Amino acid sequence: MNIALWIAQALLSLAFLYSGGRKLMPYENYEAYVKALKTSPAPPELAKFIGSVEILGGIGVVLPMALHVAPALSTWAALGLATIMLLAIGFHLRSREPIYAQLSLFLIAAFVVVGRLLNLE
Question: Residue 43: which region, alpha, beta or left (left: phi > 0; alpha: psi -120 to 50)?
């Protein structure tokens, strides 16, 4: 189970570091990227905020546990990422867009939260 949780944490970290990095690009680049995916871009200030939080969450879901420094923070980071994905699902449903990626990331983050709460090391 621990290996599955580490794999899930690594996937979350990579996905959110990438996604957050895309949102922190110059807004015109982010907007063009999102429109190419046929989804709605977030407003500039919101995109920067979400991008920053996603990068911090991507780091936080792995680093504290890997360094054995306050490992419970990794669980809290996964909970934060799950919350972000719930909000993203609402945003994309409101725009009548597919939510497959957001739902997948939510389920992975929820798996990490539950798994780490039951087996916190």
Answer: beta
Q: Which band of pLDDT confidence, cut at 50, 70 and 90, is reported for residue 1?
A: confident
Helix axes 2-23, 27-36, angle to 10 degrees: 120
Instruction: Kindly report each contact of residues 67-75 with a partner whose C-beta sits within 8 Å and lies 24 or more positions away, as own/partner.
Output: 71/120, 71/121, 72/120, 74/9, 74/112, 74/116, 75/112, 75/113, 75/116, 75/117, 75/120
Which region holds residue 25: left if phi is over 0, alpha if psi is between -120 and 50, else beta?
A: beta
**CA count, 13 A, side-chain hemisphere, 83:** 10
What is the pLDDT, as a whole number, of residue 3?
92
Burial class (CB in 10 A: 0-12, 13-18, 19+), 108: buried
Provide the whole-model pTM. Answer: 0.90
Domain boundaries of the chain, sorted by first residue: 2-118
